[in-house]
Amino acid sequence: MNAVISPTLAREGEADFGFHELFFSRTDTRGVILSGNEVFRRVSGYGWNDLLGAPHKVVRHPDTPRGMFRILWNALGNGNPMGGYVKNRARNGEYYWVFAVLLPAPGGFLSVRMKPSTPLFARVREVYAELSQRERTERLDPDQGAKALRDFAASEGFSSYTSFMASAMGQELAARDAKLGRLTDVRTTQLIALNTSLEEVSREQRNLLRSFEALQSVPNNMRIIASRLEPSGGPVSAISENYRSSSQVISERLRSFVAGQDNLCDRVSRQASKALFLIGAYRVLSEMRRNFDDAMPVPGIDWAHERQMLTEIEAQAQRDTGTAMEQAIAHAEVLGRASAEIRRQMLGLDTIRVLGRVETGRMRGTNSHLSATIDQLDVSHSDIRLRLETIMRLSEGIGTTMRMFQRTQRGA
């Protein structure tokens, strides 16, 4: 059993509950409540007769953007887990915030919710307040609200909303452990570190593509300079044409795993984020199932059935985690090989760049613009090499960390 922790001081109008408490509810596919635990009933302020058979939106607070629920329902409808910060409203008008972990369940969905407390939670509250106001005044529909939230996640440096929520879950689990005086859970620590590495490699890939795109103007500049310095078809013209054709090949290769739908970068992120989210979900599911052992009888709720269902969902979450991790590891290995291939192709560009530098030296006194262009290439090539090396290092690290994670999970 959990030790009883004194609840934190609530804000005015806030229904308070302790960090040791977890909410649980299960609904059918329409969102009608089929089951719940005493924490849910007590904090919501409703009786069981009011909750069972009622739509879950009975506790919805208008300050939670409709776009948030669109993201949740889209994920669950596609059979995927999802999480989110949710502001709910009790029967007496008080409010309470939770971080909700939602998963598909037989015949519907289930949610386990905990008390949030991280700096990220404070940031999300601000974003929600602004977005819910926009939804009302600008009449944004749920899809527009969902896009605004995804844009916010992207502005925070995340490649997907799932990755954003995986990071949020890791932070909230770690903060909750600290609040309850628990030892740091190694899986949660690994979850946070792995998600950070995943987002770092995504940022490096996007920046790498931008660096290459910026180089596309260089051959044109060199041709313009060549037309002023030499006859048509001279060495600078040939160098600029060779650089153009070689850089285009590399740029197209980059786009194939950084840009466009279902690119390699997205596949790594999607599978890794799913695995990370499921690992966090497994923790709260396990704790919730143990709490059912002390549950008081409630007419209409079969606790033995709820425990069995959670056991099966935990087992499925473990299997899905393993599958997602294997796929993410495979994609990360391909990503590392692709980066190494581009680095080899960069050697050809470096050779062309050196030829340009040699030609600059030969044309002393008439080449200030050409020299500046080659200087630009020196800087850009150095930046690209560093980014490629970072991507290769991070891709290898992601694969290694995930294998360690798998061993930790099997040991647990």
UniProtKB/TrEMBL annotation:
<protein>
    <submittedName>
        <fullName>Aerotaxis receptor</fullName>
    </submittedName>
</protein>
<feature type="domain" description="PAS fold-3">
    <location>
        <begin position="36"/>
        <end position="101"/>
    </location>
</feature>
<dbReference type="InterPro" id="IPR000014">
    <property type="entry name" value="PAS"/>
</dbReference>
<keyword id="KW-0675">Receptor</keyword>
<dbReference type="InterPro" id="IPR013655">
    <property type="entry name" value="PAS_fold_3"/>
</dbReference>
<dbReference type="InterPro" id="IPR035965">
    <property type="entry name" value="PAS-like_dom_sf"/>
</dbReference>
<dbReference type="Pfam" id="PF08447">
    <property type="entry name" value="PAS_3"/>
</dbReference>
